[in-house]
Amino acid sequence: MKKIFLIAYCALFLVSGQKLFSANTDSGRKELTFFCGSADKVPMEEIIENYESERNVSISVVYGGSGSLLSQMSLSRKGDVYLSGSPDYITIGESKNLLIKDTAKKISYLIPAIIVPKSNPAKIKKLEDLKKKGIKIGIGNPESVCLGLYGIELLDYNNLLETVMPNVVVFAKSCEDTATLAALNKVDAIIGWDVFESWNPDAVRWIKIDKNKIPRIAYVAMAVPVFVKDRAAADDFINYVLSAKNRAIFKKWGYISGEKEAKLYAPKAKIGGEYNLPEKYYKIIKNEK
């Protein structure tokens, strides 16, 4: 694809893997290895700091795209807790015997959104504006990042895949990296999550998508990997995140905790479920390279 910079997840593995295997803990402290989708990095950093202090437990955390994290768990054969930015990867993790079935618990909801630099230089007002000639767009890599998968689904649902994809100049390796593209004015727009505006309120703006054009709302879920060393400690951490005190932290950062509230942004949208990349996506990618 023209001007595509495909950020491979192997680089993420090298960086995050170093963090995973070099973590040191104080003598006598329990340690949990936490694979956390970066869609929730901002509130989770605060929650993890509080948990380590209150429980005398060390959290060795690896952030990244939900799909990449499953691959890292599989390769390392490690993981006590896993957080995915969408239920797609919970299903994949269970089917690949990487996650214990029926352990997933919903944390919050995420709404697909257009995120632009604060000044909105391309004057983007609606989803269809993303097909304008010369617009530079960033998305998450849909083959390893839940955000990217939802972005492709959004375009496909609205018959915009063929006209918008030629404007995509960056496939980012995680939700965090996708958000950064807009915050640093690297692109004119990204297809992101609603919470990205709360992450960088001085740098970006949330352009709401027509309620009837959003096919699916994501929910963030935490689950227990099959590699868990201390199931009781893993369950305690998940329940801690689900507590009222920590739901308030999510709310502070703009996250939606209830399905009813999420539905206000897209009344006809499905909650959760799966979406598989269509063949036409691969054909477009192949033809544009």
Query: What share of the residues lie within helices?
Result: 25-40%
Q: And the CATH topology of the largest domain?
A: D-Maltodextrin-Binding Protein, domain 2
| H-E order | EHEHEHEHEEEHHEHEHEEHHHEH
Any guess at the CATH architecture of the largest domain? 3-Layer(aba) Sandwich
Write a short abstract of this structure.
The chain has 289 residues and is of the alpha/beta class. 39% of the residues lie in helices and 21% in strands.
Topology:
Blueprint: E1 5-6, H1 9-22, E2 30-37, H2 41-55, E3 57-64, H3 66-76, E4 81-84, H4 87-95, E5 105-110, E6 112-117, E7 137-140, H5 146-157, H6 161-164, E8 168-172, H7 175-183, E9 189-193, H8 196-199, E10 204-207, E11 216-223, H9 231-241, H10 244-252, H11 259-263, E12 270-271, H12 279-288
Helix pairs in contact: 2-10
Tags for this entry?
single chain, disordered N terminus, D-Maltodextrin-Binding Protein, domain 2, globular
Can you walk me through this structure?
Residues 1-26 have low confidence and may be disordered. The N and C termini lie close together (4 Å). The protein folds into 2 domains: 8-109 and 220-263, D-Maltodextrin-Binding Protein, domain 2; 110-216 and 269-284, D-Maltodextrin-Binding Protein, domain 2. A 6-stranded mixed beta sheet has the order 1-8-7-9-6-10, with helices on both faces. Strands 2, 3, 4, 5, 11 and 12 form a 6-stranded mixed beta sheet that branches. The protein has 12 helices and 12 strands. Helix 2 packs antiparallel against helix 10. It has helices at 9-22, 41-55, 66-76, 87-95, 146-157, 161-164, 175-183, 196-199, 231-241, 244-252, 259-263, 279-288, and strands spanning 5-6, 30-37, 57-64, 81-84, 105-110, 112-117, 137-140, 168-172, 189-193, 204-207, 216-223, 270-271. 39% of the residues lie in helices and 21% in strands. It is globular, with a radius of gyration of 18 Å. The chain is α/β, with parallel strands linked by helices. Strand 2, helix 2 and strand 3 (57-64) form a beta-alpha-beta unit.
